[in-house]
Amino acid sequence: MRDSLVIFRRELKSYFYSPIAYVFGVLFLGVLLYIAAKGSLVAGMQASMQGFFGLLPLLLLIFVPPLTMRSWAEERKTGTIELLMTYPAHTGSLVAGKYLASVAYLGFVLVLTLGLPLTLGAYGRLDWPPVVGAYLASLLFAGSFVAVGMFFSSLTRDQIVAMLVSLFVLAVLYLLGHPLLAGLFLEWLPTWGVDLVHGLSPYKYFESIARGALDTRDLVYFACFQGFFLYANALVLHHRRTKG
């Protein structure tokens, strides 16, 4: 645990010392708030955050791969990964530290968007439980994408390759969970096949929690999904460490 905290502080500090993190934050917040704020208030005094949370997964799909591409690829390119590999810490602790730092940074960016629901709540009637659930779903969804991005970053020293592969895989996962694509699958797959393919996508479970229905099965899915890619990440690093 102590080793994870050391890596966590190191990585989180690097985010706030890097201009890329600030560019990411400004662009992400700017695009998200500008587009979502347009349709936030509906007829009468009823306020809605549906536009905001409907857009958020797509923006995470676009912005998370550039954010995670440096996780391990940059370490390999600069040679600092050799120093990390000699650090007397379990490989899982290194992965957990980097993962938690990325999620904490994204969580901080999401906190900066709270001004929108607070403003809507002041001028209209906002149903807060679904909003809180949607923020939780957003953080879990972002964490899933971070886990995938970090895994592919561990496979190459080229950051651009890591970003493009992550973007492609995450786009496929995103589309598999989209309701429109699920309807197309019904034309050539049996119902159980559609449910299987649809169930692979984090987007399906994001929508479930964002509607305010907090189901333990959704939480178990996110835990398993993230755990799988983080474990695979640790295996890649462990292989590199033992190989020397």
Short description:
This protein is mainly alpha-helical. It has 13 helices and no strands. Helix 1 crosses helix 6.
Notes on the protein architecture:
The protein has 244 residues and is mainly alpha-helical. The protein has one domain. It is built from 13 helices and no strands. It has helices spanning 2-17, 19-38, 50-68, 70-78, 80-86, 91-111, 115-123, 128-153, 159-176, 179-185, 191-198, 202-210, 216-243. α3 (50-68) packs parallel to α8. The protein is globular. The two termini are 25 Å apart.
Shape: globular
> What is the number of independent domains?
1
Q: Approximately how much helix is present in the residues?
A: over 70%
Helix segment tally: 13
What percent of residues are in strands?
under 5%
Mean pLDDT, nearest integer?
A: 83
Rg from C-alpha positions? Answer: 19 Å
The number of E-state strands comes to: 0
Q: What oligomeric state do these chains adopt?
A: single chain
Task: Give the biggest sheet.
Answer: none
Structural class: mainly alpha
